[in-house]
Amino acid sequence: MNLVCFDTETTGLDVQKDHIIQLSLVKVETNLSPSLSTREGENDQEWRIIDQRNWYILPEGDFTIPAEAEAVHHISKTFLQENGVSLRSVYDELMAFTEGCDILSYNGNGFDAPILHYNLKRIGKDFGFDGRVWYDALALERIHMAGQIDPETGEKYHCNLTAAYTRYYGHPFEGAHNSLDDVMATIEVFKAQVAAHGWEWAQREEFGFISFDRWLVKRGNYYYLSQGGHKGESIESMMRIDKSYLEWIVDKCKWTDDQTRQIILAVLEPGKSRKNSSSSSNSSSSPSKTPSRGKKRSKGTITDADLSLF
Question: What is the pTM of this model?
Answer without folding.
Answer: 0.79
